[in-house]
Amino acid sequence: MVILNNNHKRYLMINKRENVVARKIHDTFFLIDITDNYSDDKCVLYEINESGMFIWNSIDRKKTIDEIAALLKVAIIDDIDYQIIYDDVVDFVNALKAKQFVKEEA
Amino acid sequence: MDDYFLDKLENQVLDFATDKRNQWEQNHQLYSVIFEVTPKCNFNCVHCYLHDHHCSEELSYEDVIKIIDILYEKEVLFITFTGGDIFTRKDFMDIYVYAKKKGFIVELYTNGALINKEIIDIFKQYPPLLVDISMYGACEETCEKVTGVSGAFDKVLHNIEELIAAGIRVSMKTPMLDLYYSEIYQIKGIADSFGIPFRTSFEIFPSIDNDDSIQQYQVSLRDALNYEFAEFSKRPKTWGEDNDIELVDLKKSMPLFRCKLGRASCVIDFQGNMCPCMSFRHIGKKITINNFDAIWQSFSRYPKMKASPEYKCLSCDAYDYCDICPAMMQFVYGDMEHIDEHFCKCANARCSFYDKHVPIDEVLANET
């Protein structure tokens, strides 16, 4: 698996895998793997915060990471440097890739 | 900016015995629903509380989907599908996959006889959290006597085996009847041989039409307690260590309901009525997207409901061990504070055994 570094594939497009569903349950955001077979008797849900949910909802196989970071920059009220936001989006996407929740699009 | 986007993506095994569940219960936020998708059943069990309703009409596929959509919108996370038997619905797997794809965590209650390869193949792709199978006896003869169906026993065992082989989590439960009390350890042995959890219950409640004739199959209190105490003696339990337990000063708070009624879960019956629990189905109301909030809000009164000062149970030394259910008392006797002596006897016997350490034989000698 290719781990994105922060200086490459700025224009890479990514897409969600169909087995992952995002849900808001009483003010908490979760990513739920609907193919999880609950091995070891564990029901694992992945809790993400509002910004993580924003990124997740922005992933649509058409937008690049760069574009998602730009959208997030607009959505965030605080004045945060674009590069910091971009780096964090890359980190988040890498975490999603590690869990096989997203895939790269050609 | 550390953790700005992603503060909990690692280590999020969500233990529903603790934080989130407690939070949702305290906030009266519905997260778990039992949905009875059909009254129809391939079995005709002698003790079934729906026994006169196996031919009643079930909700249409569209109505079931509409309800699932409401539950999705209202942020319910867990659905347990039950019946009747869920697999009597030809469209059940469509319903199941629909719920899975919406992101619900799904448990299934079934007698297991209608499970087949096609169903298991779908489970492999979209696994349920649990398939909980009801077992009626430890042999074909008993199973047939209870269910009225021949050849089901071996089929159920075979299906449990296939589910386990497919990596599906399975558990077994047995509503204990006097028809097969003598087989209780054999049934437990079957569960053990599969390495799956087993649980049993001894209370048989009247049918939903308040027909108490099915209670003729209830195991005697003596036998029920004999099993309970013997199991306890094998694996003594320390009360109060469970995270799920909430300690309440009964004399101070005087709650009528000591269960988690109306806090974060509810039932939807086969007619599409939203009820606080299975014992409270007689007050269910038809669920729609427009009245959902009002119905759920109305359930919030139950955790706050206080017993009257005359309610004798509150001053009973054995109350901690009592299974009396005010919802069921209202259904059967029209009075939530009705005291059914059966529960008093049971609670007093438990109190003698657990608190006063009276030997089993001595406690049971007083029970006929």
Summarize the structure.
The complex is a heterodimer of chains A (106) and B (368). With 106 residues, chain A is α+β, with helices and mostly antiparallel strands.
Task: Give a verbal description of the structure.
The complex is a heterodimer of chains A (106) and B (368). Chain A has helices at 50-58, 65-75, 82-98, and strands spanning 13-16, 20-25, 28-33, 46-48, 102-105. Chain A is globular. Chain A is an alpha+beta fold. In chain A, α1 crosses α2 (65-75) and α2 packs across α3 (82-98). Chain A is built from 3 helices and 5 strands. Helices cover 35% and strands 22% of the residues of chain A. With 368 residues, chain B is of the alpha/beta class. Chain B has a single domain (20-308), classed as Alpha-Beta Barrel (TIM Barrel), CATH 3.20.20.70. Chain B is built from 14 helices and 9 strands. Chain B has a 9-stranded mixed β-sheet with strand order 6-5-4-3-2-1-7-8-9, with helices on one face. In chain B, β2, α3 (92-101) and β3 (105-110) form a beta-alpha-beta unit. The longest helix of chain B is centred in the last third of the chain and has 15 residues, at 341-355. The radius of gyration of chain B is 21 Å and the shape is globular. Chains A and B meet through β2, β3, β4, α1 and α3 of A and loops of B.
